[in-house]
Amino acid sequence: MRIRCPFCGERDNGEFSYLGDAAPQRPDGLDASAAAMHDYVYLRDNPAGTIRELWYHAAGCRSWLVVTRDTRTHAIEAVEPARDVARARRSGEAA
């Protein structure tokens, strides 16, 4: 599988470290219940189809990326800097 880094260009996936699903949002640790923290840390879906994942370009620019990928075919639809995704998420919450 090859990932097109927005900063370095197309690279082999061996240059990247996989973190997992990019969707979960960490609950506020001060106000969250133990059950909510447990669910955030340990429970993950394993969908067949398109998912947004976090990848770290460890052997390149050291950027965190959000990769939109089909888990059935490994076809990559989009790669975005994670900081841009986080900014869009924050601005969407503020609206």
Automatic annotation (TrEMBL):
Q: What EC number(s) does its UniProt record assign? A: 1.5.3.1
Q: Which organism is it from?
A: Methylorubrum extorquens (strain ATCC 14718 / DSM 1338 / JCM 2805 / NCIMB 9133 / AM1)
Q: Does the keyword Phosphoprotein apply?
A: no
UniProt enzyme class: oxidoreductase
- The coding gene here is soxD
Its keywords, alphabetically, are: Oxidoreductase
Superkingdom field: Bacteria
Pfam families from the UniProt entry? SoxD
Full protein name: Sarcosine oxidase, delta subunit
* Example GO biological process: tetrahydrofolate metabolic process
An MF annotation (GO) of this entry:
sarcosine oxidase activity
